[in-house]
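ligand=iron/sulfur cluster
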Amino acid sequence: VPEMIKSIAQAPEKEYYLPGHRTCAGCGPALAYRLIAKASGKNTIFIGPTGCMYVANTSYACGPWAVPWTHAQITNGGAVASGIAEAFKMMIKKGKIQDEYPNIICMAGDGGSIDIGLQAASAMMYRGHDVLFVMYDNESYANTGIQVSPMTPYGATTMFTPSGPEVPEAKKFFPKDPMALFCGGGHPEVKYGATASVAYPVDLMNKVRKGLAYEGPAFLHVQCPCPKGWTFPADKTVELGKLAVETGMWFIYEMENGVKTFNIKPKQLKPVEEYVQTQGRFSHLKPEHIAKLQAWINARAQFIGMEVPLPPVR
Ligand code: SF4
Ligand code: MG
């Protein structure tokens, strides 16, 4: 059982993701990286498939990590992590190294996890490699200039989903459900999966430790507000992360050996309109689109089994 962190004041002081990188001010994924690296500590190896957390972190051959890190293609984070994990297992078994088995963490964006990177992520989790697969979700392909991804919410503009006369709501599809896919949809080796948010850092850090403590694959889906892609002021990242949870645009729960626990549960959900009006990517939405989004949230709360009073669909 890993040591759990009780409060932010008791979090380890030592940083393994250091200042000096080139992510945007208020970058949610950078905050996630800092907290995850803090929780996992010194004996950690990161695999970084292409995404903002590769591109913006590695300008001019410099990187902000104080632990080993390697790049992978956006397609193959899961495969590279599998190889590193098996190489360590084998070298330890054969007595070629005296090291303790490291924390192996694949830090993939939404594209590198659930879209372009899906086959390698799925295969890694299906085969049962001892890796924590983190999906830092900023809800777009951000490093190439904010293109739509399967995690972009219904109604959001991106470079590829502008609002226009044909499709006034901008993106017309609802997002994929990665937790259902990896922790319920045919990946039996995954004994631990969770969602988390940079707005709830203690919950996030403890889930990193829990996932790493399981032998075999673990999955962590972290919502990370992106000021550039979502169009909001850089000092509102944490506020927006909280509002996402309070409106049901994000649910925080874990699946441990098939048992679901809601770790952060609002007393009632606020209307999604409160969330939508904080971000430029939703500024074109009409009442009927907001109603459609609210209906989706309400259905989702019921689908995942969170019993909470829901706002009316107007
Ligand atoms: Fe971070 Fe978004 Fe900027 Fe990328 S585009 S560095 S995810 S804030
Ligand atoms: Mg992304």
